[in-house]
Task: structure prediction
Amino acid sequence: MGHHPLPLDHLFLTRREFLSRCGMGMGMLGLAGLLHPTAAEPNATRLDAPLAPKPPHFAPRARHVIHIFPNGGASHVDTFDPKPALTRYHGQTLPMENLKTERRTGAAFRSPFSFRQRGQSGIEVSDLFERVGGCVDDMAIIRSMHADVPNHEPSLLLMNCGEARLPRPSMGSWVTYGLGTENQNLPGFIAMCPGGYPIQETQNWQSAFLPGIFQGTYIDTQHRDVEKLVENIRNRQTPLKRQREMLDLLLELNSRHLRQRHHDAQLEARVQSFELAYRMQLEASDAFELRQEPQSVRDLYGDTVQGRQFLIARRLVERGVRFVQLWHGADQPWDNHDEIESNHRRLANECDQPIAALLVDLKQRGLLDETLVLWAGEFGRTPTVEVPTPGLNNAGVKNGRDHNHYGFSVWLAGGGVKGGQAYGATDEFGFKAAENPVHVHDLHATILQLLGFDHERLTFRHAGRDFRLTDVHGRVVRQILA
Amino acid sequence: MRSLAVISCCLGLHTAITATPTSSPTPEQIEFFESRVRPVLIEHCYSCHSAQADRVRGGFWLDSPEALLRGGDSGPALVPGDPDASLLITAVRHTDPDLRMPPQAPKLDALMIADLEAWVNMGAPDPRHADATQPPVPPHEDPLARQHWAFLPVVKPTPPSVRHTAWILSPVDAFVLAGLETHQLKPAPAADRRTLLRRITYDLTGLPPTPAETRQFLEDPSPDAYARVVDRLLASPRYGERWGRYWLDVARYADTKGYVFQEERRYAYAHTYRDYVIDAFNTDKPYDQFLVEQLAADQLDLAQDNRPLAALGFLTLGRRFLNNQNDIIDDRIDVVFRGLQALTVSCARCHDHKFDPIPTRDYYALHGVFASSEEPAELPVLASPVDPDQHARFTAEKEKLTAALETRTNEEIERFREAVLSRRPDYLSAARALIDSPDDLALDTLATERNLVAPLLRRVRDSLKAQPPPPHRPAGPPDETAVGESQVHTAESGEPEAPLPTIAQPDPFDLPAQDVRRWARVQISEATASLRNQIADLEITHPGAPLRAMALVDKPQPVEPHVFIRGNPGTRGPSVPRRFLSILSGPDAPPFQHGSGRLELAQAIANPNNPLTARVIVNRVWLGHFGEGLVRTPSDFGLRTEAPPHLALLDYLAASLVEYQWSLKQLHRLIVLSNTYQQSSADHPAYSQMDPANQWLWRMNRRRLDFEATRDTLLAVAGNLDLSHGGRSVDIVGDQPAPRRTLYGFVDRQNLPGLFRTFDFANPDLTSPRRFTTTVPQQALYLMNHPFVILQARHLAQRPEIREAPDLPARIHALYQLVHQRAPDPIELDLASAFLTHTPHTFIPKPPSQAWQYGHGAYDPDQQRLTHFTPFEHFADGRWQPTREYPSAALGYVALHATGGHPGSTPHSSAVRRWTAPTSGLITVEGTLEHQSDKGDGVHALIVHPSHGPVGRWTVHNGSSTTLVAPLPVQAGDNLDFIVECRSSPDYDSFEWIPLVRLLDVDPHDVLESEWNAATDFVGPGRPKPGPLDPWERYAHVLLQSNELVFLD
Result:
């Protein structure tokens, strides 16, 4: 234990002195303060500083993750997986049996959007993502993703937590548990969604059996006021100068209390936490204050809800936040069972510029190398047209697509990803992953790999066994690693 | 993912040859194996088929030659010398679509496959004898498992003899002291009396002692003073609230179901379980009875008093998993077995438990018990008093809604019936198309395609079959799969129709109401969702709603369980009887005899001979008193949990609990009256080197208050704590947090509020063995900034004991007594008076609500200023207005609300929102003035500065205008008026305008506010925002954040 024989009359230590002493004490913390220390996991989490940065198993390629979540299910055959065969078969029955999805689908349905080759790599991206397509040389598109069922709820949980039904920690929670975070003045894991929750709500960023501090902090990016963005970040009754005086008194009282108790580490940790909180008030406000950005940068992202939340994401990552999730909007905006052309057009218009801006901006700042950007929703959509179900679709139209978990696309960029490639393929029509299929568990294993983890060794002992994000599955897709 | 062994079994590929491993491999063969074979096996197979695998697939290991030859459940995977006959090779070749390894493509490189084939061809030489790993004996077949300490019967040990007998106050001390003496440690001195009182009061009630209680105890010299305090606390209703909450952690208590689609999310009656638990602790209900009631109260003879039925909430109030029955059952098995037996039985859902002697058939034996139980359609009303008037009102309201529900349902049935009847021709045409098809699949498909009701179509077809066939072939089914505009095929769509055949009697279109109700289930459910939720809401919120138990009953016919292979309900394995765990009752224990077997399950657990039940609960009680259990994994006593250092003490306590007729209060006494418990928590540097985790208990552990105790303490010392007992859960996180004890706070397991998570609340999704104790700045932010905490600081400073104390030292003294139960020392007094008398020279701004005023006035364009400003005197419907009646007879519609308002009928009664500068500096103004009517002639707005005159003017009519003001200097106290006038027409003049005033270049350390938003700052007269804290309030706030408050020595 850290034991500092301080003279009792030395009452008015400076804060700096005091805190550096506290730091020494905490460095010598005994095992009692560790969360599940095991021989296999020497980097166990310290409960007195659960978010302190920790090294992963091996040298990481990425230090931060920005997960863009096109929730509702963006159509892969309209975005990142061109299928000329659909044009040929348009309006006709596919020469294969339609796979069973949530609802009934009918004939082949060509994409109303045009694909064209982009960048040096010449990978085709549709005109929905005109600007994102311009970044294709930084992106590895996985065109052979597959999940387990064609329903939103279980698929959202699978993509986020690696398990479709039971309460399990989300990927962001695992990563924050494994790595801590680099800025103690901000939450380590932030989930942003404008206008409310996606379906399945906060379970998408749950910590489940991990300590609650690893759960994603939800932010409604429809707001612009920092008080609505971070809980308890402002005090309406005491200005900072008064608050500093209060904290100085608190520090003096606590330090006397501490000295009488031989510098117990858990007492010291709590003293530190007030100093951290004080600084957080300034820094957190700062992170969300977009007016500090030059106009050119604000223009790059666009002054829209999406533009602002993507710019906030960059500011957060720049400040050391470990994991940021960007949801398109409340409920399931990309779930276009009807009118897919106009709806997908509208949604892509909302996010094409901000996504491309994020990639360009990160790259210009040298942050893309250490930031893994992931665009991945819960599933894709059928290459066949949805046959309307009374009560569920707009009456009298037949121009949407149903959910499709058999095959869909995600892409990754930055953070150790080999850009300019399309990995895997769906069948001729885009119904099912055919070549080099990648399950969601494999995607998780790959992401953990990029962050420096052996996905089989990032574990947490709970209810008698060691749990992990990939459960008993997962295979690293080495081909997309740089 | 399927495995080699399982699939080979399914396919019947039993390779019935006896292979012998080749004799010792040559060095070349070893080289080949090591370079070409072993890496492939390790990389692609070991993760599922080796001793290191997390979960071995299909019982098949390939990390030793013996294991490879033995294969999985169904026989060898390898025939040395014959690749084509080796399942291993078949699997990696991916030639058999049902037997592909690795199971998820891609298949191995051709080169790797060729290497494996070559290796088998050479006789599968395998040098791995040295590191060969045998598939371990499954724990449930290992006779040694029965010798595990936790499975051995509890035998009451004799307290050991010790040298320092004088220290022995309770038998607990003999065990502890013997351990200390063995390790050359000495117990810590006794804690001082103030510390002891604080410790025991928090431990038993979760609240601090009052100054009076402290004084009484400190001044009581009698030797049994402490024992009497313990008795007083155990008799307090606060005891059940504290210890009941610990139990609610085990019971994964929450007030909501988790994620739902449309249905009501809240449980209406979860709180009846919570209150049952509190009462059980308060009345010292014997623990065995407590358990039996929670598992099977419905099977007990409860005579008149059915209140124990509420206990069944233990099983029923878990997460609902969108009503997936197997997940619900798994949750119940988990809460029962981890909660009551500290066994992770749920691990055996998909495979035999990897570490513990719990085979999958045990899991499904229990699964059968819960699958044979169901929640009754109408939950039983608990015998509890309800105000008769309120009850009458509730009943009337509910009857009204129920009647509306019935009406709505009938309307929907009729609507559906008409819709069906209007498509009679479609049914007939489809029925004709099907007339020769006996195939129900074809019928169902056609029904789906044409959106027809399949059972009715069947009826029509069968009815047609009784007729002679029509003279010509009917039209074939239309192609409805083409893309494009709607092609809904109805009779009206002009489909060529054959003459309709006559219909046999009885007419299949004679539709009985109950049939239509069944067919229209989805439509009815959609149409009535809102009414059903209104009924649910009534039951959840109406004060006259009778309380009900979240009960469970046996199904009329119990379910005969089968093992689900790999946990998949679609793959049934052998049938198993419903019965208790084999490790505890023996492999040949008789099946449960009565109904579901739930009562027998309860009795097997609540049995003095069960080796786990008493050990588990005494360990939980010990954890509650010491902050650490004797066993450090309170919900896992399985084989991987070693015998605790103080096993004898654990057993002594367990045996004593049974002897006490399972009285937990007696158990508390046995523990807290010991010298062990009364030790000081002071550090001993040498000892903490030797035993850093304090497992030998050479001192008391210092503990931090948990979430509930922290929040309750803030309320208690502020004098605000509402100690009313039980009832529906209350909101403790919103704008008006209830000052109730925290355990009565509403727990939403789906979206658990940040406050709960920040303070390490138990995860309400799963039984929780113990709380984490994290330290994070978010906890500090809450204590520093949350209005609830600040309010408690204000109240604390305003308590009469403090306000009425004669002088500064006396007031500080009183504060210390309330907060810390002690007097301040001289240095603390000096610190306090220095803080309190330090007069700040910096400017303290007014609070935001005082920055804005609302009134009416007249702008004089000649003088360029407001000629008068009259504040509005009435507030109604979220709006400030001049008179009680609205519109005002004299002034018209003039008014202001949060986001806009309306000018008066003449320019003499313009709407004026006035902002007063709290400090001098530069300001800017932003905002958008909107007028949204094409009628009238719009409004005119100005912003007027006292010395600069109008700094902006805008006119809008059915449109909007941005209202920007460039940086403008203001002096403290200057009024900036936001004036909106009518133009020539006083009609249609509603406007929206949210001015945002921003103070530039301010030091955030000095001011509270640098932005004033007219909408968010808007308040009525009832709740003015409180002003800044005065020094006493700030001082009280500091004490509420102190370490001394939240740590128990």
In short: The mean pLDDT of chain B is 87. The radius of gyration of chain B is 38 Å. The first helix of chain B runs from residue 4 to 11. Residues 349 and 567 of chain B are 5 Å apart (CA to CA).
